[in-house]
Each structure stands twice: as C-alpha cells, then as structure tokens.
Amino acid sequence: MKKYKYEIIIFTVDAICMILELIASRLISPYFGNSNLVWTSVIGIILLSSSIGNYVGGIIADKKNVSKNLKLILILSTISIFAIPIIQRQILTFISKMISSIKIGAVLATITLFFIPSLMMGLLTPIIVKLKLESINSAGKVAGKINAIATIGGIFGTFLGGFFLIPNYGSIHILYVLTIIVALLVLLVEFSMKSKSNIITLVIIIASIFQMVNSIKTNNQNGEQVLEGTLKTKDDYVSYDTQYGRVLIYNTKRDGENVRILDIDSGYESATFTDEGKEYELVFPYTKFYNLMFKANIEIKDTMLIGGARIFLS
Question: Is the separation of the CB atoms in 12 and 154 below 8 Å?
Fold first, then answer.
C-alpha cells in the first residue's frame, strides 16, 4: 500500500467528494425540497469550492514540506466532515426560517456545511501530483494518471453512494464513516504513534465511532417511540433515507396545537394531533372537505379518488 498510497488517497478522496454531493442534497431536501434549484445549488457550490481548492493546492504544492501539508489538509478534512452531522440540523433550521427563497437558502446551506470539506479535498490533487512527480519530463504523464484515478474514484463514489450507501445506511451515519475513512488516509501517509497529528487522528476516529453508535441508538429509540405513540419531546425526531428521499418524523406546533409530522423533502405527507382526545381529528383543512360530499346528500353509487394531495412548506 505504501507504493501506491498517493493513488489510494486521491481515488478515495474523489469518491468521498461525490458521496458528499449526494448527501448534501439529502440533508438539504427536508428544508428546501429536492428540486433542480437545490441540485443546482449543491453542484455549483461544490464545483466552486473544489476549483478554489485546486488553485490554492497548486500554490501549496510549490512550497516546502509538501508531505506535512498533505497530512494537515487530510486532518482538516476529517474535522470538517465530522462537524457536518453534528451541526446540520441547527444550521438548516436557522437558514430555512431566516431565508424564504429556495435558491438563496439552498446556496447558503451548501456553503455553510459543504464548502470547507470540498475545498480541503480539492487541495489534494495538485499536491499529490507534486509528490508523485519525479522529473519534469514525466509531468504530463503523472498529471494525467492522477486525474484519471481521481475521475474513476468519483464515478465509483457516485454509484456506491447513490445506489447502495444512502438508501441503506442513511446520510448521517455515512458521514461518520467517511470521517473515519479520511482519518485512516492520514495514517496511510505516515504512521507513527509519536506523531501528534496521528494522535489527533486516532481521537477523531474514536469520536466518530462514538457519535455514530449514539446516533443509531437515538434514532432507533425515537423510532420505537413513534410506533408506541410516545415521541413527546419537541426536539426529538426520526430520520430515514429511502431510494426516493429523506424522511423526517418530528413534533411541532400548528395553530397552537401539538402535531406530529411525516415530512418527505419539505412536503407534509401526513400529520396527526398528539394531545389526548384529538388523535382522530384531521390536521390539514383540505382533508376536511371530503365530508362535504356526504353532507350534500347526493346519492353516490361509485367513486374514484385520483391522488391524495400534498402540502408543501412555504
């Protein structure tokens, strides 16, 4: 692995970049939807941050201690990815409440959560090209090889994340796994227990494992409370990723009443009152119009219902 450690790093990092892009859309969708506006924001900001990273990385590559800088950038990448699942709900809730525009909100959300991780990983390509370069005569071959490996890594990450990881394991848990993988790349560059950077890396790995286990436990407990009808705390929520969108189940207030919401990509799929005695009342006004059909006293023999309607957050 030492012989091909730089190839492994660039392949893995670009795979992670594409998985992050897919996760970005999933995290943002419950607050701003899953439309082309959100995807445009995510793709545009991540491309921008990667481009800036490539440019700055080229400057860093021409300085001394390139290998040391590589380890530092990988450590900063682990920290920036580790922070996403911890702060994402507070950040996204705040932005969605303050910004009414989907375009501006999605752009700000992507910048806040994903700009720095994408920037950090964008720094790595020119640095690895410099580390692999043995002679100016082979510069074109080395640059082409590294870029080809990076592209293949990106393709691998896209299919792995979109087809397998996100639908089966969930965005939040995957972020902790990605943190651990990037941290292991730090150890791949140079493993020494005397190195402060490696000690920091091991602490990050342990913290990521702890957070991931705690996240899974909390989500499972909240899921059980939903089934039992005991999810009472306003801050408690359940999150699931499916093939088609991110599902959130949470408690909130609607017109002063306590309500539990089933939310998919910022759309209210269903809702129920949680206060005792109101469990069987309808929450949304439009659903109450079904009763008008019966109050009209019209003799109806056959009916056909097309669709069921959906409430979108404004």
Answer: no
